[in-house]
Design a protein that fits this description.
0% strand, 169 residues, mainly alpha, 76% helix
Protein backbone atom coordinates (compact mmCIF):
# COMPACT_ATOMS: atom_id res chain seq x y z
CA UNK A 1 0.00 0.00 0.00
CA UNK A 2 1.02 3.54 -0.65
CA UNK A 3 0.68 6.05 2.15
CA UNK A 4 0.70 9.76 1.54
CA UNK A 5 2.06 12.44 3.74
CA UNK A 6 -0.48 14.21 5.93
CA UNK A 7 -0.23 17.45 3.94
CA UNK A 8 -0.98 15.58 0.70
CA UNK A 9 -4.05 13.98 2.25
CA UNK A 10 -5.25 17.38 3.46
CA UNK A 11 -4.71 18.92 0.02
CA UNK A 12 -6.71 16.14 -1.63
CA UNK A 13 -9.45 16.53 0.93
CA UNK A 14 -9.77 20.31 0.56
CA UNK A 15 -9.22 20.63 -3.19
CA UNK A 16 -10.83 17.45 -4.51
CA UNK A 17 -13.17 15.82 -2.02
CA UNK A 18 -14.88 18.86 -0.52
CA UNK A 19 -15.59 20.53 -3.88
CA UNK A 20 -17.13 17.27 -5.16
CA UNK A 21 -19.30 17.03 -2.02
CA UNK A 22 -20.35 20.68 -2.44
CA UNK A 23 -21.28 20.04 -6.09
CA UNK A 24 -23.40 17.07 -4.98
CA UNK A 25 -25.10 19.26 -2.37
CA UNK A 26 -25.74 21.98 -4.96
CA UNK A 27 -27.20 19.39 -7.34
CA UNK A 28 -29.42 18.07 -4.56
CA UNK A 29 -30.68 21.58 -3.77
CA UNK A 30 -31.31 22.25 -7.46
CA UNK A 31 -33.35 19.04 -7.73
CA UNK A 32 -35.39 20.00 -4.66
CA UNK A 33 -36.16 23.54 -5.83
CA UNK A 34 -37.09 22.24 -9.28
CA UNK A 35 -39.48 19.81 -7.61
CA UNK A 36 -40.85 22.64 -5.46
CA UNK A 37 -41.52 24.79 -8.55
CA UNK A 38 -43.28 21.92 -10.34
CA UNK A 39 -45.35 21.20 -7.22
CA UNK A 40 -46.48 24.83 -6.94
CA UNK A 41 -47.48 24.87 -10.62
CA UNK A 42 -49.45 21.65 -10.18
CA UNK A 43 -51.19 23.05 -7.10
CA UNK A 44 -52.09 26.27 -8.92
CA UNK A 45 -53.25 24.62 -12.15
CA UNK A 46 -55.27 21.82 -10.54
CA UNK A 47 -57.27 23.14 -7.57
CA UNK A 48 -59.14 20.61 -5.49
CA UNK A 49 -62.11 22.70 -4.37
CA UNK A 50 -63.74 23.65 -7.67
CA UNK A 51 -62.67 20.67 -9.71
CA UNK A 52 -65.05 18.44 -11.61
CA UNK A 53 -62.28 15.89 -11.89
CA UNK A 54 -61.33 15.68 -8.21
CA UNK A 55 -59.55 12.32 -8.43
CA UNK A 56 -57.51 13.32 -11.48
CA UNK A 57 -56.53 16.65 -9.88
CA UNK A 58 -55.48 14.89 -6.70
CA UNK A 59 -53.44 12.37 -8.70
CA UNK A 60 -51.69 15.09 -10.73
CA UNK A 61 -50.92 17.07 -7.58
CA UNK A 62 -49.38 13.96 -6.03
CA UNK A 63 -47.10 13.11 -8.98
CA UNK A 64 -44.28 15.65 -8.28
CA UNK A 65 -43.93 14.41 -4.68
CA UNK A 66 -43.88 10.79 -5.79
CA UNK A 67 -41.31 11.58 -8.48
CA UNK A 68 -39.06 13.42 -6.03
CA UNK A 69 -39.34 10.60 -3.50
CA UNK A 70 -38.36 8.06 -6.16
CA UNK A 71 -35.50 10.27 -7.37
CA UNK A 72 -33.87 10.53 -3.93
CA UNK A 73 -33.17 6.78 -3.79
CA UNK A 74 -30.95 6.52 -6.91
CA UNK A 75 -29.30 9.85 -6.07
CA UNK A 76 -28.29 8.46 -2.67
CA UNK A 77 -27.02 5.22 -4.24
CA UNK A 78 -24.89 7.07 -6.79
CA UNK A 79 -23.51 9.38 -4.15
CA UNK A 80 -22.71 6.43 -1.88
CA UNK A 81 -20.61 4.86 -4.62
CA UNK A 82 -18.89 8.19 -5.27
CA UNK A 83 -18.17 8.75 -1.57
CA UNK A 84 -16.77 5.24 -1.18
CA UNK A 85 -14.57 5.78 -4.23
CA UNK A 86 -13.29 9.12 -2.91
CA UNK A 87 -12.63 7.71 0.56
CA UNK A 88 -11.35 4.28 -0.41
CA UNK A 89 -7.63 3.92 -0.50
CA UNK A 90 -7.78 0.56 -2.26
CA UNK A 91 -5.15 -2.12 -2.62
CA UNK A 92 -1.84 -2.01 -4.48
CA UNK A 93 -3.33 -3.14 -7.81
CA UNK A 94 -5.94 -0.38 -7.72
CA UNK A 95 -3.31 2.23 -6.92
CA UNK A 96 -1.12 1.11 -9.84
CA UNK A 97 -4.14 1.10 -12.18
CA UNK A 98 -5.11 4.68 -11.27
CA UNK A 99 -1.57 6.02 -10.84
CA UNK A 100 -1.33 7.56 -14.30
CA UNK A 101 -4.82 8.98 -14.47
CA UNK A 102 -6.62 11.87 -12.80
CA UNK A 103 -8.78 9.43 -10.83
CA UNK A 104 -5.74 8.72 -8.66
CA UNK A 105 -6.10 12.17 -7.15
CA UNK A 106 -9.59 11.38 -5.87
CA UNK A 107 -8.28 8.73 -3.51
CA UNK A 108 -7.60 9.96 0.02
CA UNK A 109 -5.59 6.96 1.27
CA UNK A 110 -6.23 7.05 5.01
CA UNK A 111 -3.69 5.53 7.35
CA UNK A 112 -6.16 4.04 9.85
CA UNK A 113 -9.48 2.27 9.44
CA UNK A 114 -11.14 4.67 11.91
CA UNK A 115 -10.04 7.67 9.85
CA UNK A 116 -11.47 6.01 6.75
CA UNK A 117 -14.80 5.27 8.47
CA UNK A 118 -15.06 8.75 10.00
CA UNK A 119 -14.49 10.47 6.66
CA UNK A 120 -16.92 8.20 4.83
CA UNK A 121 -19.57 8.68 7.49
CA UNK A 122 -19.27 12.46 7.45
CA UNK A 123 -19.56 12.61 3.66
CA UNK A 124 -22.60 10.34 3.60
CA UNK A 125 -24.31 12.09 6.51
CA UNK A 126 -24.06 15.55 4.95
CA UNK A 127 -25.59 14.55 1.63
CA UNK A 128 -28.19 12.16 3.04
CA UNK A 129 -29.32 14.79 5.54
CA UNK A 130 -29.59 17.38 2.78
CA UNK A 131 -31.51 15.04 0.47
CA UNK A 132 -33.96 13.88 3.09
CA UNK A 133 -34.57 17.00 5.19
CA UNK A 134 -34.09 20.03 2.93
CA UNK A 135 -37.83 20.15 2.26
CA UNK A 136 -38.70 20.25 5.95
CA UNK A 137 -36.26 23.07 6.67
CA UNK A 138 -37.38 25.07 3.66
CA UNK A 139 -41.06 24.79 4.51
CA UNK A 140 -40.53 25.40 8.23
CA UNK A 141 -38.16 28.37 8.12
CA UNK A 142 -38.31 30.00 4.69
CA UNK A 143 -41.74 29.28 3.30
CA UNK A 144 -43.71 29.58 6.54
CA UNK A 145 -46.76 31.79 6.88
CA UNK A 146 -45.78 33.68 10.04
CA UNK A 147 -48.96 35.76 9.95
CA UNK A 148 -50.96 32.60 10.47
CA UNK A 149 -48.66 31.58 13.34
CA UNK A 150 -49.19 34.96 15.05
CA UNK A 151 -52.96 34.61 14.65
CA UNK A 152 -52.93 31.15 16.23
CA UNK A 153 -50.74 32.46 19.05
CA UNK A 154 -53.21 35.30 19.76
CA UNK A 155 -56.07 32.79 19.92
CA UNK A 156 -54.12 30.68 22.43
CA UNK A 157 -53.53 33.74 24.66
CA UNK A 158 -57.20 34.66 24.52
CA UNK A 159 -58.29 31.13 25.40
CA UNK A 160 -55.78 30.89 28.24
CA UNK A 161 -56.78 34.27 29.71
CA UNK A 162 -60.43 33.36 29.70
CA UNK A 163 -59.79 30.05 31.37
CA UNK A 164 -59.98 29.59 35.14
CA UNK A 165 -56.20 29.39 35.79
CA UNK A 166 -55.14 32.35 33.57
CA UNK A 167 -52.12 30.79 31.85
CA UNK A 168 -50.05 32.95 29.51
CA UNK A 169 -47.46 32.05 26.93
Amino acid sequence: MYFFFRWKRILKKYFVTYPIVMCCLAFSLWIYFTYNRIQKKADDNYPLKKSLFFIQAKFIRMMPSAGYSLLIIPMNLVYTKLAIFMTNFGNKEEMIKFEKSLLFFCLENHRLQTAYENNLTSKLFVVYFMNCFVGLFYEAFFNANYGNVAQVNRKKKFICRTSFLHFSY
